[in-house]
Amino acid sequence: GNHRDLPSFPTRRSSDLRIEDLNWMDVESYLQRDDRLMLVTGTTEQHGYLSLLTDIKIPLALADAASQKTDVLVAPPLNFGCSPYFLAYPGTFSLRASTLMDVVEDIVRSAVQTGFRRILVLNGHGGNAPARARLREAVNDLPGIRLGWYDWWTSHSVEAVAQKHGLQPTHANWMEAFPFTIVSELPESPKVPPQVPDIMDAATARRLYGDGSFGGPYQASAEVMDELFAACLEDVLQLLKFE
Length: 243
Known about the structure:
This protein has 243 residues and is an alpha/beta fold.
């Protein structure tokens, strides 16, 4: 489809609706007209040459872009997640899976208690899957509450864009190299993907992954990244309908 009418990479605008820009009375009046909330989860972990906060910056950009189109409120992002395998890379912070599950459940229960009824988690990090499992349990105790969860990089939309351009999406390669996640020069030659075991300690992960990218090209064209973002934004807009 034609996504040209969708914003590419939003900068903060006055039309963004973030909790940080409101007081409690503003939220109370918001709740009189809407009961939806977007919660961004991700992690702070190595992403090769990209920002350590890549897994927050991408879903937060999607949340801001979606809020510009729908006026749905965006909660402050949870900047930490589960990244135990990257702890040999400086700048990585990791919560235990049990901690993350408790934190995400507590945030959701708080939101429900203050009046939110439809909550979409925009998750940027695969290691946070335990929190999704916890919410699948918790929703049984929350009658009338609708919860959604979106892992943008696993979506059919991303797969379609990647296949169309003959690119393989993975951690810290072109797929996550948006203008707002690039913080340094990127290597020009693609990286050969390393062979790794499914479960390994942090020292082994650093030895096998080297610079931290999982392989392939480090960057794609601006057109590809525009298309990728627009496709994910379309997904988020659909999910916010809570059909």
